[in-house]
Amino acid sequence: MIFEYANPKRFMDLSGTLLPWIAAVAAILLALGFYQALFTVPRDYQQGDTVRIMFIHVPAAWTAMMAYGLMALASIFSLVNRHPLADVAAKTAAPLGALFTALALITGSLWGKPMWGTYWVWDARLTSFLLLLLLYLGYIALWNAIEDEVRAARACAILAIVGAVNLPIIEFSVDWWNTLHQGESIFRSGGPLIAPVFLWPLAMMGLGYTLLFVSLWLIRMRTEILQRRARTLMLRGA
Amino acid sequence: MNSFSALLLRDIRLAFRAGGGATLALAFFACVAALVPLGVGADLRLLARIAGGVLWVAAVLAALLSLDRLFQSDFEDGSLDLIALGPLPLESVSFAKIAAHWLTTGLPLTILSPVLALLFNLPPQAYWPLTASLAIGTPAVSAIGAVGAGLTLSIRRGGLILPLLVLPLLAPAVIFGAGAVLAALDGLANGALWLLAAFSFAAAVLSPFATAAAVRLNLAG
Fold it and tell me: Which residues of chain A neighbour B147 with C-beta distances below 8 Å?
């Protein structure tokens, strides 16, 4: 089913139709979520106004992890099915993932200064996100270092899969090493620990971030495909 | 002599002869360890506390030094093509290369580490955990590093990009290795050595497949 749309022509048609809608829903969700996060959500009794940072921090972290998962999935398709569209998908997801990881790290450290008294602590989650950022940067660097496109795609696919196997181990080792970050409060058995007044705007932001990622991803994929076409046309003209 | 041990012995010999760099990795290890007290000060209590971490980081960096040549010199002079055509599957070739790399860097580093620990005033009860953790953990460094070496095989300045690919993946080895030493200092038992052993075994088993895939794609075309 998915392979029907792996044809670049079909993909361009379908993504061209869907993109404005996804982007519009993302914009609406983010605008509503931002408004609530900044104005209607009450101050937290402990954290005060800094709790508002959570609404841009937590969804960024979710999206950053989702991006790695999608990149690894696309890499598996690229190795198994050898389809160029999977290469394009994996390649274009990486810089976005790095961006959301950096966003989560920066907003986290801005929150950490008033709450923990320091911009950076060597806490388990901060550290594993720093390592995630380095993994993304290594992936991007490897892609840029290999000139041949097909070879670069396959090398990067192997790297992404090795990284995906290793990420849970890194996560575990860093947890074992040190933990200060608050535990999981949303996706836990027994229901979320967070008050509903915070939960709804957070869910809205989470979905908004996800759709924002999907829109940016589609735009980058379309750009990459068009660039490849342009290059082929130039080579044919030469 | 079968082709696996032939390849293993050949790589070990190459590492110790001219231009091999096995002894250079040891010298690098000692240099890094000697520079750290110059940077952080000569407080012996502090040095004893950080010895495990410093020696682990220095060992990982020293092992990385020779990794970029793991396949590259064979690739450049064409012997890698011959090896690939030979009877040994590339997975076994990768395993032989990893084993040779460990025997010529990880093992010597492990043997040298107690001497350097002496310079760091490491208390006696931490010597065994330090040496054991390096002996158990450095195979993981060679194994995961080999994947990076395979991936960067055809890149001219592959040695520059290799650490960026490999070092984040090696975080668990450093954490468990240095953790074992710290636990011994505090008189605790925290199972770090077992976790390190698990990590190392998994890396040694899985990495030859990823390494072989990486080498194969660089040989094709």
Answer: 158-159, 162
